[in-house]
Every structure is written in C-alpha cells, then in structure tokens.
Amino acid sequence: MIGLPPPHGGNLGWCPTALRDILQRDLYRGMVLWNRTQAIQHGGTRKQRKRPESEWLRIDAPELRIISQVLWEQVKERRVRNQRAYLRGEGGRLLSRPTGENRRSTYLHSSIAKCVTCGGSIVAIKRTGKRRYTRTVYRCAYHHKRGSADCSSNVEVRQDILDSAILHALNEALNERVLESSVVVALERIRNEQEKFPDQRVALERELSLIQTRLHHLVEAITNGKSTEAVFASLH
C-alpha cells in the first residue's frame, strides 16, 4: 500500500487490521461471489437468509484483482497456522483472550510514553547485534510499523538508559513528605476495608443460614411425598 492514501484520509497511514481484511476478501483477488443470501418473508418483514456455501456462484473477475494468487495462498496458509496456535471452542471462537490491561508489562514505558513527532505510542523492540547480542530499545510504533511516511522519527533509545533516567527523575521529585502522605492514605484505606469486613461476614453467614434452612424444608417436603415440580425447581 505504499503511496496509496488510506480510506479515511489523515496522516496515520493504513491500519494493520484494514490490510488484514483486504487480504481476506475474495473481491480483491479477482473473485466475485453471488447468490450468498436469499430474501425471505418472516412475520411480515423482509429479511435475508444466508445460503449454504455449496450454492454460491463464483465468477472470475481478473480486472478487479489487486492481490496475486500467490500472496493470497500464503496469507491463507498463515491464518490456518495461527488458528491452530490458540485454544478455541465451538465455532472457532477463542476460549480466552487476555488483554494488555490484565497483564503486567516488563517495560516501564509501554502504553504510557508518546512520540513527540506524531503522538504515536512508544514500544519496546529487541535488537540483535553482529555478535548476536540482544538489547531492547524504545522507538515510535508508527515509524516501526508504517514507515517514515507516517512518522519521520527514527530515534531509538536503549531501554536501560531511558528507564534509569526516568526513575532517577521520579526519585528526585518524590520527597519524603510526599511518600509519607501516600503511606498514610494507603493505611487509612486498608483500615476502612478491615472495618467493613466483619459486617460483610455477618451478612454472608446470615444468608448462608437462610439457604440451609430452605434446603432442609425442601428435603423434608420430598421425603413426605410432596415432591412437585415447583419443589424440584426451588431445590435446584
């Protein structure tokens, strides 16, 4: 997509997800699909029903092709390989997908620092030197993924140097009075939570006692031959 403007304009370039969708759409490889849906009447409303794939009509349209068949097959093969790498349930849906918010990052500036040139996020990237020595550097994500057309900043800073500079600056800014005040606030919050806990425990024990009493009465009803469907429903 070099030299081609993105669909919505702007100076941020093509989004990776947009490129992914293009590489999955049959129209861009010169294939037009017809008869994929059928109009039906349901409850007085006109709706569309999906037809089985065996009823689709495929028409070659090489004049619409912008992706070669070789690239299309390579992408298809890689998608299949990636799908096998993750645990999936019924219908191919991911069983779980951890978010970045739930994971602790090993890099101090992830999702915090911004590029002063374009405003993009600063990401950590591993570099391997000539002697196979690996080091981590910070750089602009837009320049790294989309090139100089979106961000001209190719500055890279070693992780250890930038982390050390930030931590030293924070150490100078946070004096003893600020730290002491933070500790006092934290202790007050902990004490308040501890004061609320006994009340919550009493409420939970009372609720548990009521549930046990109800279960006892339901069991007695079944024992005495009063096992109706309503009793079984309440028991469950």
Describe it:
By secondary structure, this protein is α+β, with helices and mostly antiparallel strands. The protein folds into 3 domains: 16-94, no CATH class; 107-173, no CATH class; 176-235. Helices cover 42% and strands 15% of the residues. It has 6 helices and 7 strands; from the N terminus they run αββββαββαβααα. It has helices at 16-22, 69-83, 141-146, 159-173, 176-223, 229-235, and strands at 31-34, 37-42, 45-50, 57-60, 122-128, 134-140, 157-158. The protein has a 3-stranded antiparallel beta sheet. Strands 1-4 form a two-stranded antiparallel sheet. A hairpin with a 2-residue loop joins strand 2 and strand 3 (45-50). It is flat, with a radius of gyration of 31 Å. It starts with 15 loop residues before the first helix and ends with a helix.
Strand order of the largest sheet: 5-6-7
Radius of gyration: 31 Å
Oligomer: single chain
Low-confidence stretches: none
Shape: flat
Approximately how much helix is present in the residues?
40-55%
Report the total helices.
Answer: 6
Order of helices and strands: HEEEEHEEHEHHH
Strand content: 15-25%
Mean pLDDT: 79
**Total beta strands:** 7
Question: Biggest β-sheet, characterized?
Answer: 3 strands, antiparallel
Structural class: alpha+beta
Task: Write down the domain tally.
Answer: 3
State the end-to-end CA separation: 59 Å
